[in-house]
Amino acid sequence: MSGYFSAEIVLLLMPWPPLAIVVLIGRALEKLSPIDPNLSPGEKLLDYKFAAANTVIGQLLFPLTGVISALVINAAGGGWISLPTGGASWILSGAAVILVYDLFRYWTHRLYHAVPVLWAMHSFHHSAEALTVVTGARQYWLESAINSALFPVAAIIFQVPPLIGLLVPVIYFVPDGCAHLNYRIDLGRFVSWINNPQWHRIHHSTSPEHLNKNFCSLLPLMDLLFGTAWVPAPGEYPVAGLTPRECPTFWEGLAWPIRKLLFQRPAGTPKAAAGFR
């Protein structure tokens, strides 16, 4: 039994060192060239609290979500396609996994904006007004658990080799996890090549013309293919948040979908109420 608890403690602690390194690098970049140099310290601190709560709850739920994920993979007859790994073919195999996963993430993201019960959770992420390095982890904890447990799409479609299984999340993390940086980066003609803080800020914009734009996690190609791309102009960094505004307290954030029942505060209007544009 003691060995079991030791293993659980290791699993809980493993994500924290790399996350701390990413946060430190991100904070350094945000000081060099911030998009918004006047972010509220209170809002930034609240974002760190939300991100920490989501990460901790996710780790605590990991045994349960892992079991459910395994059951889903087995029920779907996981590993439909065996990927070649000989020679340089692992590069093509890795690219296939990334493209399929990115396509899946794109359409899942669109569903979270279109289906009311999903938006009830996902709107918490969009309530952030002070976008920083940790905003990517500011997700409603139940949304994160559902994604981990029910949608192991890569493992269902592919027999993913261990090396690819290790490298793909790392490749994915840099543009996807750092897309909320408060860091002014103008990539010019390359802005639509890979997800970045300017491209993704359009997705968080309160401006009506940006509604339901730039859903991609990694490749803006997905937005370009499916008609949801808004190519930002040089220096275009819109205000982020919900319309109308809704700034939750920590406890309201933890109870986000039922916050009105518990705290009697008016809810924000879903950004996806008008459908896709």
Textual characterization of the structure:
The chain is mostly helical. It contains 13 helices and 2 strands; from the N terminus they run ααααβααααβααααα. The protein has a two-stranded parallel ribbon. The longest helix has 26 residues, at 89-114. The chain is globular. The N and C termini lie far apart (54 Å).
List keywords for this structure.
globular; mainly alpha; single chain; 2 strands; 277 residues; 1% strand; two-stranded parallel ribbon
Map the helices and strands.
Layout: H1 2-13, H2 16-32, H3 41-60, H4 62-75, E1 81-82, H5 89-114, H6 116-126, H7 141-150, H8 153-157, E2 158-159, H9 162-177, H10 197-203, H11 221-225, H12 250-254, H13 259-263
Parallel strand pairs: 1-2
Helix pairs in contact: 4-7, 5-6, 5-9
Kindly summarize this structure in a few lines.
The chain is mainly α and 277 residues long. The protein contains 13 helices and 2 strands.
With strands numbered from the N-terminus, the spatial order across the biggest sheet is 1-2
**Which geometry do the CA atoms define?**
globular
Largest sheet, if any? 2 strands, parallel
The portion of residues forming beta strands comes to: under 5%
Unreliable segments of 5+ consecutive residues: 1-14, 269-277
